[in-house]
Specification:
The chain is mainly α. It folds into two domains: about 200 residues, Triphosphoribosyl-dephospho-CoA protein, CATH 1.10.4200; about 100 residues, no CATH class. It is built from 17 helices and no strands. The longest helix is centred in the N-terminal third of the chain and has 21 residues. The relative contact order is 0.16.
């Protein structure tokens, strides 16, 4: 299967039956998660060279591999989005003891995978925009059961989130409130869209996920046009996309753990490095020392751009399904 620009047409192997396509989609999810955590240096996040005290690179790898049955069952049996997010958390914690590794990634991967299988069942090929539109329609049709499963996944995975007054994910009484109010998972995401990057993706059509996919593909397929490198390098493409996203959007995870000022300062520093590539025409390899310094600063201050990493996973997932090979 050749590499295609996902901005145009998304392809899938035409010789596979439905079960084979479900396997293929699950494999794309596994590889996307593995590539993201392996990208190095990725300022502030776990990568091949850096671990956190309680969570290691190997924990993320184990979690990446464990996602297979979740995505496969979602595609094969039309599982609900909330149920599948919960399944992802359960599978991850079966295989590693590093705690929550990929909750945010599941929040994006699950609706995108659900949309892909719907599109595949109808069309041989489709555009990125058609996929994102289908994903939007999919999340808009969630229900109360999805909401309850999402809350259970959140609590079981011990996910970090900012406290709010209404339907607080940390409040055990929230499930009863959801039942009484008949709130769907999409409703809950709408309520969080202004303070959570991933909820914002659900509500606004997964635009950053599509943007990440195009950045990854373009910087890999035409590296001289963007990265000024002579050879294609998937690692550099991921790093560039990570920096680009971080420079343009404040990372929710940083804001939750620290505050909005810290998040904005991180974006400013990322913007400085991106400008060196975009405006001053420097290559990724030439700014590796500055990248390493930026990485060390964030690690020392325990600043972790986790939400940006989740967007990268989603972008890689779309790209790999679209035919990106390295």
């Amino acid at each position: 299967m050749t590499t295609h620009n996902v901005e145009k047409i998304l392809y899938h192997p035409s010789n596979l039956e439905h079960n084979g396509i479900c396997i293929y989609i699950a494999q794309c999810a596994q590889l996307a998660m593995s590539l993201e955590v392996s990208a190095t240096p990725k300022p502030g996040n776990i990568d091949r060279d850096h671990d956190f005290d309680d969570t290691k690179y190997e924990h993320f790898l184990a979690s990446s591999i464990s996602v297979f049955p979740t995505i496969f069952n979602l595609c094969t049996y039309n599982k609900g989005l909330g149920e599948s997010i919960y399944s992802g958390v359960l599978e991850s914690l079966k295989w590693q003891r590093g705690g929550n590794t990929h909750f945010g990634a599941y929040v994006l991967l699950v609706p995108l995978a659900a949309a892909i299988i719907k599109m595949v069942d109808k069309e041989k090929e489709f555009t990125l925009q058609q996929l994102l539109s289908c994903a939007s329609h999919t999340v808009e049709n969630t229900d109360i059961v999805d909401s309850i499963n999402f809350y259970n996944a959140f609590n079981y995975g011990n996910v970090r989130v900012k406290s709010v007054n209404e339907f607080d994910l940390k409040n055990s009484e929230s499930i009863d409130q959801i039942k009484n109010s008949k709130l769907t998972l999409f409703d809950l995401m709408q309520m969080s869209k202004n303070r959570d990057l991933l909820a914002n993706e659900w509500v606004n059509g997964f635009k950053r996920c599509g943007y990440a996919s195009n950045l990854i593909c373009e910087s890999f397929i035409h590296p001289m046009n963007i990265l000024k490198e002579k050879e294609k390098n998937i690692n550099y493409s991921i790093i560039y996309t990570f920096l680009k996203l971080l420079s343009e959007y404040n990372d929710t995870f940083i804001t939750i753990k620290h505050n909005s000022k810290v998040s904005e300062n991180v974006s400013i520093k990322a913007r400085y490095l991106v400008q060196k590539i975009d405006d001053k025409k420097q290559s990724i390899s030439s700014i590796i020392p500055e990248l390493n310094k930026f990485d060390q600063e964030l690690l020392e201050q325990r600043i972790n751009p986790g939400s940006t990493a989740d967007i990268i996973v989603a972008g890689l997932f779309i790209s790999l399904f679209g035919g990106l090979r390295f």
